[in-house]
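Thread amino acids onto this structure.
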């Protein structure tokens, strides 16, 4: 643990003389708390109510300015996920929280550990409801966070922030919210209490009941045709290697959980046992898993369905067991059994308990499909060009709804911590999160693959990328429409819906206006060359590619 010190860097020692050693303030202690937790990057968009928190900003902290609060939270979300620790997003009282609600919803779905703070009027003016008072601050984001709070006294702020950080970081991880009246930051706190609050450690990775693991290992081994469905919490829990080893030892074919919930990958997509991404609807999931008698789901809800295509929940004769660290995920599943425990630890225990299977290895999967050339390019062709130049240690952040499956099929991402997608489905995550991911992983090339419609929900993230020199490569697919919604219209038998076309949206020009070097590329080779150059560049760059309308699946 780093030494306990004040915000100005002085060590906190027990006070010997009250007069000679002034008491620390809420701000001193809160920054010490952040420091002790390694949370020295603060994403924010300040207003008058947040300035007292930011006063005399300590030199060992970094402030990352987002120009709108949805972008602030989206960047913090990507940063927290890619650094695997809680991050801070600081918002401007009620309007700032309001702007950020969609991004907080995404963070909740992503299981991202996030401390969201917001300023508030001074305590003296809250009851008379002076301008900018957030009247029911804790109510506002209530349903989107694990805990929402406004401390009753200024001196409780550090403990509340600490409580929030611990809770956000405990499984199932997720965002918390603390509202801080602006005068609280100057209040003095007792030094002994402060030291206690700062130095607390809370750990919460629960192991599974050994009996349940032993029984599951036996069932797995004696099943005729078991299958693994891999979800995002395999990667989040660090269980990647255990999932691979278990699939190999037990000869399991592996499906990825349906794309809407696959915020991260749970299994290498180029592995011979990997079969593909499950379709996101009830009937089609059961059809895809037909013939399996035991379905083991790890690190996913059961299942992130959408749209509603009814059918059997499970194939005839199949049983399902899910491993999840989220009790809510476990109890809301409409079928099967669940073990609530840390995903990595449980997979490791299962691996130890399960013998080498004598089943034949699954048929090796097919490589990416070749797509015939077209003009304009199909999104699949663009993704195959990306795959050609994608570096070993590359990271992709994806928000290109109509080409999600094509990217997964073409790119076959195969390292942990290399794929980010919002499990919540709220647009605006991709562009903002890519900036946060790159800030957390400065040595790995990050490409943000994004539709021109999706760009608009977080467009100011371009400015943060340019202003802070965050070298994300933005690959913008421009099809002049909301392609996925046209597909949904067919699925829902909706005709004549307006508002599904996006003519004339010049993203390259908009991004250039924010300071990002931008270009257009049209042919496959031109796209590949431009991507290779941008991925090697030390500044943010954007490549806009006109693509054919419609869905790309392969
Ligand atoms: C905040 C938010 N608003 C609206 C939507 C509905 N929506 C889902 S996909 C989509 C279209 C996105 O367009 P684009 O990025 O161009 O992708 P394409 O469908 O063309 O691949 C919209 C509007 C959403 N998911 N989130």
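Threaded sequence (554 positions):
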């Amino acid at each position: 643990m780093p030494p306990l010190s004040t915000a100005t860097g002085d060590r906190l020692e027990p006070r010997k003389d009250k007069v000679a050693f002034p008491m620390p303030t809420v701000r001193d202690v809160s920054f010490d708390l952040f420091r002790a937790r390694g949370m020295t990057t603060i994403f924010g968009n300040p207003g008058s109510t947040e300035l007292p928190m930011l006063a005399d900003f300590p030199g060992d902290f970094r402030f990352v300015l987002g120009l709108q609060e949805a972008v602030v939270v989206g960047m913090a979300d990507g940063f927290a996920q890619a650094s695997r620790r809680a991050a801070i997003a600081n918002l401007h009282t009620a309007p700032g929280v309001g702007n950020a609600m969609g991004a907080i919803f995404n963070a909740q779905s992503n299981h991202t550990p996030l401390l969201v703070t917001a300023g508030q009027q001074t305590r003296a003016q809250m009851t008379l409801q002076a301008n900018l008072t957030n009247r029911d601050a804790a109510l506002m984001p209530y349903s989107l966070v694990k805990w929402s709070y406004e401390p009753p006294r200024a001196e409780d702020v550090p403990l509340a922030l600490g409580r929030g950080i611990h809770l956000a970081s405990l499984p199932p991880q997720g965002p918390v919210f603390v509202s801080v009246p602006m005068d609280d930051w100057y209040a003095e706190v007792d030094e002994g209490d402060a030291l206690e609050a700062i130095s607390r450690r809370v750990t919460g990775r629960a192991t599974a009941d050994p009996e349940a693991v032993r029984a599951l290992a036996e069932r797995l081994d004696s099943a005729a045709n078991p299958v693994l469905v891999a979800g995002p919490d395999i990667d989040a829990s660090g269980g990647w290697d255990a999932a691979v080893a278990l699939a190999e030892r037990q000869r399991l074919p592996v499906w990825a959980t349906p794309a809407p919930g696959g915020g991260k990958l749970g299994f290498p997509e180029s592995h011979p046992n990997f079969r593909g991404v499950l379709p996101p609807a009830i009937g089609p999931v059961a059809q895809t898993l037909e013939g399996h008698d035991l379905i083991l789901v790890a690190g996913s809800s059961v299942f992130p369905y959408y749209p509603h295509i009814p059918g059997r929940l499970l194939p005839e004769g199949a049983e399902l067991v899910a491993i999840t660290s989220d009790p809510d995920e476990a109890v809301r599943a409409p079928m099967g059994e669940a073990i609530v425990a840390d995903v990595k630890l449980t997979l490791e225990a299962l691996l130890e308990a399960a013998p080498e299977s004598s089943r034949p290895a699954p048929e090796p999967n097919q490589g990416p499909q070749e797509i015939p050339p077209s003009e304009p390019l199909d999104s699949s062709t663009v993704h195959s060009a990306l795959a050609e130049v994608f570096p070993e240690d590359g990271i992709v952040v994806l928000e290109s709804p109509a080409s999600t499956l094509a990217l997964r099929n073409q790119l076959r991402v195969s390292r942990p911590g290399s794929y980010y997608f919002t499990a919540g489905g709220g647009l605006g995550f991709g562009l903002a999160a890519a900036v946060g991911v790159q800030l957390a992983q400065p040595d790995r090339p990050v490409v943000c693959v994004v539709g021109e419609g999706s760009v608009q929900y977080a467009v100011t993230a371009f400015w943060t990328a340019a202003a802070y020199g965050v070298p994300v490569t933005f690959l913008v697919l421009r099809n002049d429409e909301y392609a996925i919604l046209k597909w949904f219209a067919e699925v829902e038998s909706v005709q004549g819906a307006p508002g599904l076309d996006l003519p004339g949206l010049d993203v390259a020009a908009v991004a250039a206006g924010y300071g990002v070097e931008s270009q257009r590329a049209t042919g496959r080779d031109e796209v590949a060359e431009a991507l290779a150059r941008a991925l090697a560049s030390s500044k943010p760059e954007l490549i806009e590619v006109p693509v054919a309308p419609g869905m790309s699946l392969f």
